Amino acid sequence: MMQFTETPPPSLHQITSFPNLPMNNNNQINRTCPWPGFPTSKALGSFGDANCMEQLLVHCANAIESNDATLAQQILWVLNNIAPPDGDSNQRLTCGFLRALIARAANVGTCKMFTAMANAHANLAITTHKFSVIELASFVDLTPWHRFGFAAANAAILEVAEGFSVIHILDLSLTHCMQIPTLIDALASRPEGPPLVKLTVAGATEDVPPMLDLSYEELGSKLVNFARSRNVMLEFRVIPSTSSDGFSALIEELRVQHLVCADSGEALIVNCHMMLHYIPEETLSTIHNTNSSPYPLESSSPSYHRTMFLKSLRSLNPTIVVLVDEDADFTSNNLVCRLRSAFNYLWIPYDTMDTFLPRGSKQRQWYEADICWKIENVIAHEGPRRIERLEPKSRWAQRMRNANFRSVMFSEDAVSEVKHMLDEHAAGWGLKKEEEDLVLTWKGHNVVFATAWVPA
Question: CB–CB of 172/275 below 8 Å?
Fold first, then answer.
């Protein structure tokens, strides 16, 4: 079991003070004197339904967007009463959105109430844990959220790598190469012997959870030593690049330095694990930077970064591209649409949490902190600062086809690998096939998709 040494962020109910709210001597909200027309604390139980919580969040978002301080203040009071940070999964989910709406009010507010929120906003900052390699490896093993993509991608990679003496893996992964050790183990046991593995990573990605407490150079040294212990020769290369410009520096370096040698019989494998949705997409360019907007925008339009990145990948003529990501849509420029989409997707990690992390555990606190970071980015920010821009599987599939890729089906061996992995977790997890693709589900709801592509 992992041990976390940092102190988790303080409870929202302990640190949030709304101006003009009735308070007692202990600086706690007096829960018996709401505004006229709002229920007393005894009647707040009727607001505990997830649908009702969602509607309250929507009304609060509309009030903040219209700068209606009185209405926003009233709804925030109700939400603060019905959504404790240590409640059930729906309450904790709602508490995360409450925190994000307060942060957004601090960003956009012009009235005194919003100004007071801005003054308290520093206390609402989300503290995310920086993992050691061992901690992160153990952490991602707790749930199929990442393991599903690891299993599906590794199975596809092993199949296309057959017969190649050299494989070059371009790894764009949110989990900092945590997928690679299992792949190295499998390659080490190949009947024809292990290939030379060239592993290239982007080394200057944005600070998004989960975060590592060491540099990629140090990580690479550990991976090289691990591979050596398995009699696999691994070459590790870090190329400074960022998702904000579509990893253009990475693609350019690969070309200029002739690091991709497809003509020499080298397999080029592009592994994209929950990283491509940080590349800006078209909706960012539709926001106009007016004097009334509190959000800074880049002067040059990044609207086609995703398109250009995929076309650049295609020009490298990869042996296979594996694309794994979360199956949701967080791209709308309309706050309410985005809030609804996020609320109806992010209930899943909260709901699953009880199956693998006990209440009060350090791991659970930091797992929820990472989710709260995502919620705040989706809700509180706009423009280039809003980097959580998930797109559903159908839209990514269209992008890949437009870039002249065609999808390929996962083999029965890959499906068996995924099913075997899911057997290690709670019964609510499931697997379904959608055409050539694989989809991880929780209680029948789509969670993560895995797709495989080759040049058309």
Answer: yes
Locate the DSSP E strands across 137-253: 166-173, 196-202, 211-212, 234-239
State pLDDT tens for residues 356-403.
Answer: 999 889 899 989 999 999 999 999 999 999 999 999 999 999 999 999
Binned at pLDDT 50, 70 and 90, residue 124 comes out as low
According to the model, what pLDDT value does residue 255 have? Answer: 86
Q: How far apart are CA 442 and CA 346, in angstroms?
A: 12
Counted residue by residue, the chain has a size of: 456
Q: Which of 146, 141, 232 is nearest to 185 (CA)?
A: 232
SS3 331: coil
The model carries a pTM of: 0.87
Q: What is the pLDDT of residue 108?
A: 72
Distance of CA 443 to the CA centre of its chain: 20
d(CA 7, CA 5): 7
- How many whole angstroms separate alpha carbon 61 and alpha carbon 56? 9
- 237 beta partners: 200
Structure tokens that stand for 280 in this block: 């800006």
